[in-house]
Specification:
By secondary structure, the chain is mostly beta strands. Helix content is 2%, strand content 44%. Strand 17 and strand 18 form a beta hairpin. The two termini are 34 Å apart.
Length: 278
Amino acid sequence: MKITALALLALAATSATTADQPVLPGVVSTAAAEVRLAISPDGTRMLWGSVGRDAAPGQLDIWERHRVGEGWSKPAPVPFNTDGEDFDPAFSPDGRQVYFHSDRPGGFGGTDIYVVDLDAASGAFGAPRNLGPDVNSKGAEWAPTPTADGRLIFASDGWGGFGKHDLFEVALSGGKPQNLGRAINGPDEDFDAALTPNADAIVFSSGVMSDDVAKASLFVSRLGPEGWSQRTPAGVGCSDFVNGAGFDPSNPDRFYYAAKCPGGSGRMDIYVTRTPIR
């Protein structure tokens, strides 16, 4: 699993203080662990990963809520969840598809990247499709992030690299994944990438995840004429384990992350703050 139950239980709150606010306590942020909020481009649907919500403590599922008239639906698991691991949802730039990772039967490795269509008129999800061996390896792929120019950024430990999981990108039209390079990827886990709305910078998590240690921070890299700049600390987060970076497509100054913070609702909550990109 991406985040084991033991690793989640090992997360320790810090003495750091923050003005960041949990997202909808009791609705999105609950006593379970909520990670990686995704908001549709039109702002009418929210998806996120949840660990142990109305399920066994280590069960990873995707949850959603959507606009109904003037209000919102009650949070509910998406219909394409399995009994295994389904996690890390992300909307395509046009909102017509959702990318996620899963260990459902029929894949190429531990966890694979899938895509599912979302009907704009009915709000119904289609049948998930595996992205195939040009994306998925014999290892584990996590946290897909589709881009407006037809690429996919994701984490993998099956395509080689500099550490455990590295960040890669691949053209969805075909080709092999390309490592984002040493400016971004280090010797530990690099994962959960989020692009700014204008795609000029990336925010991601880097650190250690095991049954004994769970420690990760957010980093920023900017895209220039010569590629990605050397990563620098983002300076965002209220604990020693921060992941699930995300931007609101309707408000580029709004930034989301997941962490276990003092006074939170559960094992991990989703927080909203100002963007770390200045």
